[in-house]
């Protein structure tokens, strides 16, 4: 099999810039608040309420939610395409919800924070979800559609 | 102040996700499906974030106190077990099916229409299912989450 780069969609500079910004957000949240910016962990913590542990989670999620509004003030939002139908999105959402909690992290917690900490546990988790993503994307794109 | 900083971190994180192109599920699938034309952008996103993150976590390793007070809470789990890998595989399957992981789905809530909303509700339901399940079966590794 030959690897062919999709040059029309590949955005190395924009993706690197966005990545640096995500790293910056992760860094300030770690150093100022002492917390890991793992999205599934932050969301999941809302289901196990503890004193003084809810408001910061809601604030972080609110920041994520209003991000496109703030971005939209400056420039138009990039266009997106969602190929999955509603039924697939429900199944996918359930899998992501259960899987990230059971495996203690997602792309941000294990991928960004874990790899930044050079955690072998997070490296194993990251390889696991990327492998499953490869296989699923192949099945959905080439065997079903 | 901690709440404001959480809001700000979430906002910057979300803007980073938008700039990097990760709020577009077809771009994420374009990375996960490397058998067609491959879009390696996602590597640049994680690479950029880790590039910044690595310094922040290295600093945090020797500075136990957060700037706004309280300890810096770093994950303590070391165990590489079935749970970690199965959770990762489950998450990755959902990720490959929809092209959404938790961060981009939440960022797309207000501007992405019915599809990211459906995915996010299903994801939160999945997290709730995990929570209920783990409360009923007193899992010994519960505190690892």
Q: What would a concise description of this structure say?
A:
By secondary structure, chain A is an all-alpha fold.
| Uncertain stretches of chain A | none
- Please report the number of helical segments of chain B: 6
Global structural class of chain A: mainly alpha
Largest sheet of chain A: none
Question: What's the total number of strands of chain A?
Answer: 1
Tally of DSSP helical segments of chain A: 6
Oligomer: heterodimer
Give me the count of strands of chain B: 1
What are the key terms here?
heterodimer, A: mainly alpha, 6 helices, globular, B: 145 residues, mainly alpha, 66% helix
Structure characterization notes:
The complex is a heterodimer of chains A (145) and B (145). Chain A has one domain. In chain A, 69% of the residues lie in helices and 1% in strands. Chain A has six helices and one strand. In chain A, helix 5 packs across helix 6. The two termini of chain A are 20 Å apart. The model of chain A has no long low-confidence stretch (mean pLDDT 95). Chain B is an all-alpha fold and 145 residues long. Chain B folds into two domains: 74 residues, no CATH class; 67 residues, no CATH class. The radius of gyration of chain B is 18 Å and the shape is globular. At the A-B interface, strand 1, helix 1, helix 2, helix 3 and helix 4 of A face helix 1, helix 2, strand 1, helix 3 and helix 4 of B.
């Amino acid at each position: 099999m030959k690897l062919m780069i999709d040059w029309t969609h590949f955005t190395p500079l924009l993706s690197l810039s966005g990545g640096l910004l995500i790293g910056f957000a992760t860094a300030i949240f770690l150093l100022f608040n002492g917390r890991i910016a793992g999205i599934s962990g932050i969301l999941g913590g809302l289901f196990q309420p503890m004193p003084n542990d809810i408001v910061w989670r809601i604030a972080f999620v609110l920041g994520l939610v209003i991000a496109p509004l703030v971005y939209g003030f400056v420039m138009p939002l990039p266009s997106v395409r969602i190929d999955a139908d509603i039924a697939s999105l429900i199944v996918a959402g359930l899998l992501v919800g259960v899987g990230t909690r059971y495996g203690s992290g997602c792309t941000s917690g294990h991928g960004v924070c874990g790899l930044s900490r050079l955690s072998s546990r997070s490296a194993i988790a990251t390889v696991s979800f990327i492998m499953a993503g490869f296989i699923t994307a192949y099945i959905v794109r080439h065997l079903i559609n | 102040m901690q709440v404001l900083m959480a809001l700000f971190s979430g906002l910057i994180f979300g803007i980073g996700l938008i700039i990097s192109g990760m709020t577009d599920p077809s771009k994420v699938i374009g990375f996960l499906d490397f058998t067609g034309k491959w879009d390696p952008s996602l590597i640049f996103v994680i690479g950029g974030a880790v590039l910044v993150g690595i310094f922040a976590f290295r600093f945090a390793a020797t500075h136990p106190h957060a700037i706004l007070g309280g300890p810096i809470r770093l994950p303590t789990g070391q165990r590489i077990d079935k749970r970690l890998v199965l959770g990762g595989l489950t998450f990755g399957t959902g990720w490959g099916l929809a092209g959404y992981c938790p961060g981009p789905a939440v960022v797309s809530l207000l501007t992405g229409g019915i599809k990211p909303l459906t995915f996010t509700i299903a994801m939160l339901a999945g997290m709730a299912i995990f929570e209920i399940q783990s409360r009923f079966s007193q899992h010994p590794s519960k505190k690892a989450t």
